[in-house]
Design brief:
Blueprint (H helix, E strand, L loop, with lengths): L4 H37 L5 E7 L2 E8 L16 E2 L5 H13 L25 H6 L15 H10 L15 H15 L3 H13 L5 E2 L29 E3 L1 H12 L6 H8 L12 E5 L2 E11 L2 E8 L4 E7 L6 H12 L11 H9 L4 H14 L10 H12 L3 H14 L4 H14 L2 H14 L4 H11 L1
Antiparallel strand pairs: 1-2, 1-9, 3-5, 4-5, 6-7, 7-8, 8-9
Length: 463
């Protein structure tokens, strides 16, 4: 039967559009592959990567080796420790129990763990989720097991701060979330995650607390070829494949495990650059906008970037940390947007951290400019990231005046970037200079109207 001409043209146009879409996706995938394989050749990425665009996986690859011996090549079946991203499983678990009426976020910790000292009477579940419990961190040098850590907690006579008053990101908050889940459910945290989170999310190969005997687990190592010790003092760490990680990202974005109200509770931190249970991100009422979380554990490093409206997901996992996953993500996202992108180069901060720590702000900038003039192709100087990373390195060392000098220089180099003004605003905020913090956050929001963090701080400072 012949088709009427009036039907042929629409069908023809549909075919043309489909072909153009496939070609565009293939071109993106090819550019991403070139980017990643170049980074691998330069020793700047050893690990697994997945990229989805418009809700469809367009690129997936395993690049490099499974361990320090460099005799076994990675495959997509390998599982990686994902550092702090594994904390999402306890945060989501707490919210699942809240949805079922098993707990309230306002409940005192002593309700579930009455054996703890008196300070547990003043600490709420929400304080553990927000890292405002006042607890000190795990004593990593001496703790060898969950029992050791619980014994340390039992010895604490006084908290470092009043619960709810001060943010301190540390793993005792995570440890106690996991113990609460065990007390309420009557099963191990491992069993709870496997039965109530992994299976419902469609995750089939994830493993919790893998040992050296487990197959298809990537082993981390440093740039000198030294293998990380395969030991974790406290339990509850989930290692993932690319497919399982993608399934988890979709479960969060599509509210398969917890509803939008519960998700909002653990995706928003209590202040600027404060971690939440899901790392960080944003929502528009009951719709997920972004979910971004990074994690590091010795030489393991992972990054999840999910932007639901565009159907974009970028997953990067490495067992040879180079400190460049955000830079890789930015280049990948630029490729997806059809924009120019930067090649991956060595980290200026990682390479020269010892020298940087011995210089003042002015000397650091002089040294930066000298290296940039002589080694532009070797280190990453293409965008704002290098100076931003340098500024945060200084800020992390409590060198706020030097960090401000670096961030100020970055705003002169990249005057149209909302991100660099946000960083400068944060440095002034931490310094206590509210007028200049407000000025720079407003400039950041003007350049980037989607900056929810700037909106929050401006509202706070305007009061």
């Amino acid at each position: 039967m012949k088709l009427n001409l009036k039907y042929r043209l629409p069908l023809f146009m549909m075919g043309v559009l489909c072909t153009a879409s496939v070609l565009a996706q293939n071109n993106k995938a090819a550019n991403i592959d070139t980017l990643m394989r170049r980074a691998n050749r330069l020793g700047m990425f050893n690990g697994n990567v997945l990229v989805a665009d418009h809700g469809k996986v367009i690129y997936k690859a395993a690049l490099g080796y499974a361990d320090a011996s460099k005799t076994t090549k990675l495959t997509e079946a390998y599982r990686f420790h994902i550092g702090s991203i594994a904390k999402e499983f306890n945060a989501v678990g707490i919210m699942m129990l809240q949805q079922k009426g098993k707990l309230s976020l306002d409940d005192k910790l002593s309700k579930y763990l009455p054996e703890l000292p008196a300070w547990a009477d003043s600490m709420s579940i929400i304080n553990l989720l927000q890292y405002t419990s006042g607890l000190p961190d795990v004593q990593w040098k001496t703790v060898k097991s969950d029992a050791d850590n619980m014994a340390d907690l039992m010895k604490i006579a006084q908290l470092n701060s009043v619960p709810g008053k001060k943010y301190n990101y540390n793993n005792n908050n995570v440890f106690l979330q996991r113990r609460v889940i065990e007390k309420i459910t009557g099963i191990s945290f491992k069993q709870f995650v496997e039965d109530d989170e992994l299976k419902p999310a469609g995750m089939n190969t994830a493993v919790i607390d893998p040992t050296e005997k487990d197959a298809l687990v990537a082993h981390a190592y440093d740039n000198k070829g030294n293998a990380d010790p395969f030991f974790y003092p406290i339990s509850g760490w989930t290692a993932l494949t690319l497919d399982d990680f993608y399934a988890w990202a979709n479960a969060i974005d599509k509210f398969k495990l917890i509803n939008p109200v519960a998700t909002r509770e653990i995706i928003n931190g209590i202040g600027p650059n404060r971690q939440s249970g899901l790392g960080g991100g944003s929502m528009d009422e009951d719709k997920m906008i972004s979910h971004i979380h990074d994690g590091t554990s010795m030489n393991y490093q992972a990054l999840l970037v999910s932007k639901a409206p565009a159907g974009i997901t970028v997953i990067l996992m490495t067992n040879n940390k180079q400190g460049n996953l955000y830079a890789i993500d930015r280049s990948i996202e630029a490729i997806l947007d059809g924009k120019p992108y930067a090649q991956i180069r060595k980290s200026f901060v990682d390479e020269f951290s010892t020298k940087i720590d011995s210089l003042n702000g002015a000397q650091i900038l002089a040294f930066y400019n000298d290296v940039k003039a002589k080694h532009r192709d070797e280190y990453s100087f293409d965008g704002e990231d290098t100076l931003n990373e340098l500024g945060y390195h200084l800020m992390g060392s409590k060198r706020l005046a030097d960090a401000i000098m670096v961030f100020e220089f970055n705003t002169k180099l990249f005057p149209n970037s909302g991100n660099v003004f946000d960083s400068l605003g944060e440095a002034y905020y931490n310094q206590g200079n509210k007028p200049l913090a407000l000025l720079n956050y407003k400039k950041s929001l003007q350049l980037d109207p989607t900056n929810d963090n700037a909106k929050k701080i401006i509202t706070e400072l305007d009061k």
